[in-house]
Give the backbone structure.
Amino acid sequence: MIVKQGDKWVVRAESGRKMGAYATKAEAVKRLRQVEMFKHMRANWAKGIGKPRAKGAAKGKGKGNAKAMAMAK
């Protein structure tokens, strides 16, 4: 939720935890959308959907794969 406190717009979690204070409402809305996106991503990861990959472990891309291919020859 977004609440006005003094001259700042504050993003708060459902639990009441402060997620950040912003000068404009537009900035607060942007942050709230980010928080919601990560919340949904975490829920999907828990279900085993779209698990994050390690850095550089994209499908067939990255330096690690080229190194492995060179060693295999």
Summary: Residues 2-72 form one domain. The mean pLDDT is 80. The first strand starts at residue 2 and ends at 5. Helices lie at 25-47, 63-72.
